[in-house]
Amino acid sequence: MGYTFAEKALARAAGLPSAGAGQIVDARPDVVLSHDNTAAIARIFHDLGAGRVQHPERLAITLDHAVPAPTTQHAANHAEVRRFVAEQGIPHFFEAGRGICHQVISEEALVWPGQLILGADSHTTHFGWLGAFGAGVGRSEIAALWATGELWLRVPETILVHLAGRLPPWVSAKDLSLWVLRRLGPEAGIYCAVEFAGPGIACLSLESRMVLPNMMAEAGVKNAYVPPDSAVYAWLAGRVAARTGQPEGECLDRIAAGALFPDADATYLARQTVELGELQPFVAAPHRPDNVVPVSALAGIHVDQAFLGTCTNARLEDLKIAASVLRRPDGRVRHVAPGTRLLVIPASSEVLRAALAAGYIETFLAAGGMIGTPGCGPCMGNHMGVPAPGEVTISSANRNFRGRMGTAESEVYLASPAVVTASAVAGHIVDPRAVVETGDDAEWGA
Predict the structure, then answer these.
(1) Please, what is the average pLDDT of the chain?
(2) List of domains in the chain
(3) pLDDT for the residue 445
(4) pTM of the model
């Protein structure tokens, strides 16, 4: 009998020859992630009687959820995190403005295929795009990991999602993710793993692949996995070589050697097939990420705010497609509709620099948009775009629960960057294909 990726990854992390679904293992993660919540975790850590972190080199800490600090309390929290980092000698610390944890740690190439990363953030599933096992855990669990270097985990059952075909123009990995959430529902994935497979993966760019495991957190999954390929190895190897000065070829070989793949005869809890060519732009209506319908079913709903950002969809590819919606073929820029605001927050400082160089930031400004500091922004309702009571936001984020963006008396719709930007131009929810002229074209290809 063969094994799934999750079974193989957790067996490796526990130092076991094999592990099966339902088995409890003592796993030792390669990376332990935390962000602004590091201060609260540190208090738990000290309450445990621990003085020193077991493996400081395995910790990765970012300041990203409330940056720049919007209140004195947030500023004090950041100061406490900085003190802890200095006291513990933690090398992988990323200051306010560097960007969102999942994006930054990917860019820093701190996570490799086949590795285990546990984080105090539910979207740590994100790292499945690298062929890694990424899972979110609680603050107490992170404190225990700091103290001991290991944590018991139950090996999850796995759902297989087979991708066939190729996405049509103006349909993205975000639309695919929303469609999968609609089919799975909010509870089907609880403490399960999701494996993506099939020829459709090769048709997705690397940045598009990042969206899939990130969004699967909304189905309650423990982790989600996209099989790595030569494009992933090369992306990581270039970054590792730049950081360490080691030959890129040697880095690539070491990275590829750690990759894990499921066996052909692995046992799955369920199997789904998605024909990519049959998909269309989708929107998740309030107040659930799986409340998904075609954009045409919601067309005409007024939008007060369009938010392009978060760890799900604020990479260069996303900003490029948004800019392509705004810029006409003749070079003129479409303007945001009166009564609607467009807020753009790049996922990282690296993305921001690249977007500046490409002219996308200038396009957003010419359209009447606002640009925020790289970070999470209003995604969890801290600041930088919190809606007023009664307002409607269309967002490229991953969650639209009531009050998620800080205001319970508002509504949040989730959509792709193309739909978000087109809706900002129209002033209401709209299919991007209804905004761009004939001849405009865009797709998320390899």
Answers:
(1) 95
(2) 5-274 (3.30.499.10), 285-434 (3.30.499.10)
(3) 33
(4) 0.95
